[in-house]
Structures
1.
Amino acid sequence: MNFLDVRHLSVSFTQEQGSVQAVRDVSFSIDEGETLAVVGESGAGKSQVFHALLGLQAKNARVAGSAKLAGQELIGLPATQLNQYRGNALRIIFQDPMTALNPYLKIGVQLTEILQVHQGASYQQARTQALQALQEVKLPNPEWNFQQYPHELSGGMRQRVMIAMAILGHPRLIIADEPTTALDVTVQSDIISLLKKIHQQHGTSMVLITHDIPLVAGLCERIMMMYAGKIVETGTLQEIHQQARHPYTRALLQATPANQRNSGKLVSIAGQPPDPRQLPTGCAFAPRCEKARRQCQTAQPELTAVSDTQQVACFFAEEN
Ligand SMILES: Nc1ncnc2c1ncn2[C@@H]1O[C@H](COP(=O)(O)OP(=O)(O)O)[C@@H](O)[C@H]1O
Ligand SMILES: [Mg+2]
């Protein structure tokens, strides 16, 4: 059985100007101990997929479909029960630690609370584990950092604190949502190495959400490409790098890392993703696709297997 099994997940938002289709019928699974990268441009729906299954979606969101964690349905679960999973089995690391850390509480208080609330640990037990976690993420002086407030730390150190929070009590799945986007390039690779070490030592399943394909290579075994709320291609790291079949994946691979990092966007792909309030009738990538033909304007390609591990949503996958 898959550890996480997502089936036909959709997320839409109701707004005065109409409805936004942020996630459109997405299905995928993650095995125990697996590392998956979710890659796509800003607005592709990457975060919304995982917010929905953690119950973190905005109030105007409508979530449909299923997401089972070790057989237990998460979609529609009451907040109190979802909180249990969020505290124990699943953790999320956000892009900007400043919005996820409480600026008024010392680091130590924020770390120990998690263990006291979710795992019923005593303060002493929680403190010992929190200090171990700070050591594991290689903060220079855990005892001292424990007493500090978030604003006293650098961006890279705050992201390490977020990772320390995520690993407390050894969750089975960590979702890292653009954990390095706000950081310098050198710090980025340190953070990825750290996540990799945690994965190797504890066998934690990981999802790395990013727009930066080169970053993924250090950590993930499998890549899932998202475009305009849909999965357009998925495959092993090797398949995606050596025989990507979706024109979008190919275009992203050609986008240089330097371009991506400097702008936070993929400047080398011409054009913009479609407006999620007015999606095209056919393939959502067709307006930007050099290979698009008439069929692409009128019908939507289904995600179809091209190998045991690779699936592509393109009418011309076999030719590419
Ligand atoms: N509360 C909301 N109301 C309306 N639209 C939203 C809301 N939150 C997110 N969206 C839209 O959902 C789409 C997907 O967003 P998101 O999952 O954050 O993209 P990504 O993480 O891939 O950058 C975007 O078009 C975004 O504008
Ligand atoms: Mg996002």
2.
Amino acid sequence: MANIGSHANWPPIEGIISDLDGVVYRGNAAIVDAVQAFERWQAAGLPFCFVTNNSTHTPEDVVRKLKSFGLVIAPKDVVTSAITAAELIRAKHPELTRVFVIGAPSLVKAMVDVGLDVTDRKREAVVMGLDRQITHEKLRIAVEAILNGAAFIGTNPDLLLPTAGGFEPGAGATITAVAAATQVKPLIVGKPEPHMIETALARLETARDSTLLIGDQIQTDIQAGKQASLLTVLVSTGVPPREDPSLVPPDFIVSSLTEIQSTPALVGHPRQRSA
Ligand SMILES: [Mg+2]
């Protein structure tokens, strides 16, 4: 077990589960001290796994991107909402074989990789992620399938995504449209739901109460981590997080991942350890 902290309130950490965008990089730019922190943890033998709501990249895409920043990891070190959606369908609906997908090629690949038949005929499930080629016809097929009893799975609930020039609608916006049309509530895979965290924990094989969840969003990352009973660290860009009494606060707030190696500040109330 590697102990990454020296602060009195900082427990021994066996493993790390971390968000990517806003933590390790911002768009296409690396967050240099975060990359260095992961390199040091890797050298120290501390296992980590990345979790991302983004269903439009495969784990191999993420591996390539991180390699360009100097961090060398394996595809198994990345859990995407697409991969977890495929695993959830297999686990919750083992009898199901035919899925209709609205999403990126990476989402289709995730379904095919677990043996599902991606088709617009006799659909038994509808899986929706971010699809920049979405059409009314795709929405019609999804709505009809769900009204006929197909299972309804959404990769992530993000409504609005920042782009280089502004914003674009996220997967959550179109998932919400289909949910409104059908009046059927989808199973949402991504954060703040804990499914991806559970997948990452199973891969790390670390104890829940000595695994750290690192994220930059209280509404998604920190809530997912708390739902899975992990210790949580919010990496903040210096802007104070908005107070929202309905959200569970993080256990720690740092301005840089390098602080995790020294003396992170304990925030809020005394940390509640899970049994
Ligand atoms: Mg993020």
3.
Amino acid sequence: MLINLKKFLLSDDLVMNINDTLTITDKELLETNKLNKEFLFEGKFYKVDKNVSLNAKITYAYDEVCARCLEEFENKVTANFNAIIVDEINEDYEAEDIEILMKDGLIDLNDAVNQIIYLSMPMKALCKDDCKGICSKCGKNLNTGKCECNDFVIDPRLEKLKTLLED
Ligand SMILES: [Zn+2]
Ligand SMILES: [Zn+2]
């Protein structure tokens, strides 16, 4: 995920936009997160004083298991981040922005993207907002239709009466 800033740095331009589909090459990152290789990168590089800052949005997809119906689906996540482009990583740096190292006008987004994916991936996700889930009795995925179970909801008070009668 290399981006060349040489031309931009030499030009009089103050802003450079990059909207591109990039490829994640980090195998570990791909496998642990079940990521799609390709993700959308929308970035704006700004010259600020002598530095370059980056305002970016990434949209990535990964294989997720729905928390409600347990079906696998592809979840898409969009995350925003800000970064500053530096010549040297400053260990004491405590600002919220991510630092991206530049070497000979080239920056590698790998670490920043890695970090953003780690921070933005949801703990739980639903295949769709109105996912019906699975039947607690028979386990059927109710998105595919009703099951044979009686979906009549018994009033808890009647339920108590029923058990009393059964005894
Ligand atoms: Zn679902
Ligand atoms: Zn059922």
